[in-house]
Each structure stands twice: as C-alpha cells, then as structure tokens.
Amino acid sequence: MLNKGRHLGVLLAAFSFLMFSVMDALGKQLSSDYSFAQITFFSSVFSLIPIIFMLNGNSLSSVLVTTQYRYHLARGIIILAMRFSALFAFSQMDFADTFSIILTGPLLLCLLSPVFLAERISVYQLLCVCLGFAGTIVVLRPGMVTFNLGVLGALAAALCFALNTIVMRKMGPKESPAAVLFYGMLFNILASGLLLTNSFTVPTWSDLGLFILCGLSAGLAQLCIFLALKRVSASVTGMMQYTCIVWAGVIGYIVWDDIPDNFVILGSSLIVISGLMNIRHATRQVA
What subcellular compartments does it reside in (predicted)? Predict the structure, then answer.
C-alpha cells in the first residue's frame, strides 16, 4: 500500500501529464490563427512563472550556475524542434491520434540508448519496441487511409523526446532541475522571438488568455514533475506518462468531438502496454 508521500507523488505525476495535455490542446486550438513561433514564445514566457517556485528560496544566480552550456544549447534546439513538430502534428491530426504516435518516444529512446549512452538493450526490450511499433502501424493503417503529413510531425516530436532525454542523461544528476528547465525555456523564448518578427499577429483578449493558460499549464506540469520525483521514482512518473492518451481522448471528444476509432484504440493500447512493459523491465534491472 502506498504511503501518503508516494500517493501524493503519483497524483502529482498524473496531474502533470494532464497539464501537458491541456498545454497541447491549447496549442492545437491556437494554431489555426497564430504561428508556431508565436505560440511557442508566449507559452515559454508564461511557463516561467510556475518554474520560479522550483527555486525554493534560493537565489536565481546560485541555482542557474552551470558549466554545461553545450548540452543546454543542444537541449534548447531539440525542445524547439519538438514543440514545432508537435504543433504541426496537432494542427493536422485528431488530438488522440497524434498523442498515440508521440508516445512512441520512450521506445525510440530504448533503441537510441545503446548508440548514445552505451547502454545494453535486451531481447525483452526489443520485443517491447516491436510491440509498440506494431501498435503504431495499427494506428497509421498504411494503405487503408490517406497519408497525413501530420504523422511525420508526430514521429519527429517522438524522436525529439528521445534525444532530449539522452541529453539530460548526459548532463548527469548534478545539474539543477531549475537550471535544466530555465535554460531550455530561455532558448525557446529567444529563438521563437527571433522567428516571431515576421509572423506576429496581435492576439484578441480571449486568445491572450489562452496563451497565458498554455504557458501556465506547461510550467505547472514541469513543477509537478519536479515535486513528484521527490516522492516517487522516475519509473513511476514514466508510467504515469501514458495517462496522456486518456486525457487526450477525453479532451479531444469534449473540444473537437473527436471519437477514436477501433484501430486507434487498439494501436494506442499496444503502445501503452509495450511502454509499461519496458519501464517494468528497467525497474527490475535497477533493483
């Protein structure tokens, strides 16, 4: 039975992925009227508000001290690419369909880890990856439905997720979580701000509210993950990541009347099962 601390950690992790889903839903809604650069810029600016609470009374300068600027730069580029790719995918596809493909990111990480992190991959893990990609094929149904370019965006976002995780592992545990998040957001603000010079649209007051909510939900999600990891293991928070497919289904139905068909439900289930099996295997290896 979970103690109160672990129970709170699980709830925080689940809530964080709900906030990530809300952020993506708001991004999808705004993408019909605003550029990806503008969405990224405003969401990154307002996401810094909750992230400030991660300082926990420490001075900004003491927390943000780092010698790993190259890794922060690499991560900033990857995050920007991931955000633009995801926004493109969400703008072209149903919400839950897009999430089901993006959730193959942990499986791609499993394949890339031997190359970039010198980690060994077992036969069991390869089987998990095969199961997950079988689920992806079921969702995509090649030859049965018209190909959607949004699929490429979702796959690119999944790849960026894997690369981002690899860079963070390269940084090591000594790097402050606040520094990791701050420098990533700072790069997004600067880069998207430069791109925004040719694509700025003055938002309506209601849309400005959506921009603020998009940023706050992103920052709150990061803060909740930070607090959750103080109470539960990374494997537990990794498992909670797959609640995104549930949130995506609910949000897609409420906002856009999207109803996932049987292929999407079956394929998404295979992706989630393969991901959970992979996390369970990794947890046993550590133990």
Answer: Membrane
Query: What is the residue type of 247?
Result: W
- pTM, two decimals, is 0.85
Please give the Cα distance from 278 to 104 (Å, whole number).
12
Q: Which two tokens stand for residue 255?
A: 């906002």
Q: How far apart are CA 276 and CA 235, in angstroms?
A: 9
**Which has the closest alpha carbon to 19: 36, 43, 45?**
43
d(CA 111, CA 245) in angstroms, rounded, equals: 22
Measured between alpha carbons, how far is 90 from 161 in angstroms, rounded to an integer?
16
243 vs 31, higher pLDDT:
31
Give the total number of structural domains in the chain: 1
Asked if residue 211 lies in contact with residue 203, where contact means CB atoms within 8 angstroms, the answer is yes
